[in-house]
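May I ask for a sample protein chain and its fold as tokens?
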Amino acid sequence: MKDVAVIRTGTANLASVLAGLRRAQCKPVLVDDPKKVTSADYVVLPGVGAFAAIMDQLRSRRLVDAIRERIVEARPTLTICLGLQVLGSRSEESPGTDGIGAFDAHVSRFGTTVRVPQLGWNCIHPASDCQFLTEGYGYFANSYRLTEIPEGWTGAKADYGGSFVAAIERGPILACQFHPELSGKWGASLIERWLGVKREAESC
């Protein structure tokens, strides 16, 4: 059974993430020590709440450099919802608050033509070179999003008042705007693929 370090951010509802990892036959362990984040074989960064709040928590626990180091070194890391957004450089939600800066990207709010937040299922369309992501339905709960896949990454798009980034990946790093742990069998298969468990994915 694989150990998976789940970062305790102080803002995320961790129950569903821990349950999803246990269903994938691994052992999730909550951590807030930067040394454990750096050394763990697998790390999950969940995110619920506001951009500034989660960055304040990560900085207070000295976790920003540890997370950035994992991304730079391409070590197995899964980020969820706000966990994707904080990998970027900044967000319209919290002007003046820097993100982790794993890539240069600005997170912006959905436009006025759609209801915010987006709550519910949306179909995800991955690029052909994705190794984890397949076409399927993911569960979203977000008011902000990336509009373009960062340079050097591949990923998937979805549509909600226009195209937006549903997920990105690079090597063993997978960053999802949706919640794979709440996305049924398709989401469970995605988590298992990231963990290296082979299983045929369900599609739209």
In short: The helical segments are 15-23, 34-39, 51-60, 64-72, 82-85, 184-194. The chain has a mean pLDDT of 94. The CA atoms of residues 124 and 158 lie 5 Å apart.
